[in-house]
């Protein structure tokens, strides 16, 4: 049976998910927290937080920083995913027992998702962790939660309210699983609190199942005075345009997003989870009222 997890290191604690995870771990009072930060970072943390500035390219420096730690949570952004192998190697040297990599989205275990641009590096990290776990005491947990619900609405990702002209894919009736940042953070606490049940496996988190048309219906109810004019397209059209941008060497949010939409709205990519591990992790899912609450804040 896995030993209890007490000393936890967070990498990327200042990001969108990172700030929520950091606060949840603080609030739980069950863990001793340490934050790893780049030497040139100006991010500030609450008084009393143990912060270690470290060179993420140096396995030796990372190993020294991780001595005595039980778990590492990697919350890297898309451009920093490649830093994880060095962090994994250092975790093994330091005797860390659990590593949670930067997943937190679609199901990267599916071959169709692994072939998509946003998941290429994540798949490599998964494979690296799996192989390393076979010859060391380091274990892993992959966390899949679909697109972030609140962040995805607030940032016009899964449904664009900015001009009341949301882009609807494939008719809008395809159901997908989605999870708030708060619930994802609760799930991470659940992983650390249940090390045996979550060892060397993926866990799935979900607040609600919803479709774009259902989101449109809720948005219309919240803002009935607005002139909603949805624009319809297909995933093939969107990804074809992204392919052209890639050929031209343009890699930005407009290039990457269509592939993410493929992972969410294409049933072949598993965006509608057939199971979740909320109960194992002690997570209480939110209901669809949270969608109304977010729309009420962002639709003006």
UniProtKB/TrEMBL annotation:
Keywords, comma-separated and alphabetical: NADP, Oxidoreductase
A GO MF term: oxidoreductase activity
Keyword Electron transport listed: no
CDD domains reported in the protein's UniProt record: PCBER_SDR_a
Domain spans labelled NmrA-like: 6-223
Pfam families assigned: NmrA
InterPro entries xref list: NAD(P)-bd_dom_sf (IPR036291), NmrA-like (IPR008030), NmrA/Isoflavone_reductase-like (IPR051609), PCBER-like (IPR045312)
Protein name: NmrA-like domain-containing protein
